Model the fold of this input.
Amino acid sequence: MDPRPSIQAARDAKHGVGAFNLTMIEHAEAFVAAAERANAPLILQISENCVRYHGSLEPVGLAALEIAGQASVPVAVHLDHAEDVTLIHRAVELGFTSVMYDGSKLTDDDNRATTREVVEFCHRHGVAVEAELGEIGGKDGAHAPGIRTDPQEAKKFVEDTGVDSLAVAVGSSHAMSSRDAMLDLDLVSRLAEVVAAPLVLHGSSGVSDETLSAIVQTGVSKVNIATYLNGVFTGAVRAYLAGDPSALDTRKYIRCGRDAMADETYRLLGVLGAHGAALTGVHA
Ligand SMILES: [Zn+2]
Done:
């Protein structure tokens, strides 16, 4: 389903829509179980890196779409950090309702031009587009530590490209294993004031509960979390295997990871203020 109504509702109500990355179907099952328990909208994300890991988009993408389609709450399937426009076309053909085009490695002009083309293509197919500003330092594009999004540049980028949401650099960075990122809440509120599109926080694994709930109240409407929840999954599997070194059946320990991930996702959805936020009547 189209994530835009849920993201807009989150923006209006000052909460956040949880967007969680999967690498296997048990992740998707855990996230959907949590969202159903919380009666919250959900975005299942598949990154270009995940596609590379599996060797192609179709098996993992179709499984995620099927799991989303069976959910009792609105669940969108989103292609995350796509640099390859062909992959975006394929995702749209398969039925993804949201994509992030990542042109941050391009020059600013090329990023704008390609983002605009992606928006034209996706909007023709009713698909939402998230993007980010061009690389302004660091190998991690706009999310590198120390990099900050300029509100006027962000405003213009959204106007020039027509994107539906914008990933902003406000102090988080990808793949952090500790939750101590210092976010610039003042910048978030200035961005939320001038940028027409909802804001997205990447690298939220490194952000504490307290800061996550502050940032959604300040103006971030979609919160991407991957590394932190992977750590919860892996921790539970590791503990199971340590307690039962002769375990053979993969379901026994993967189930532990899935259950732990679902519980923590449910809790995080509460931190984002999303419990009870599922819109009725938008479920496709
Ligand atoms: Zn990201």
Summary: The chain has a mean pLDDT of 93. The longest strand covers residues 75-82. The chain has eleven helices and eight strands. The beta strands are 17-21, 42-47, 75-82, 98-101, 128-132, 165-168, 199-201, 220-225.
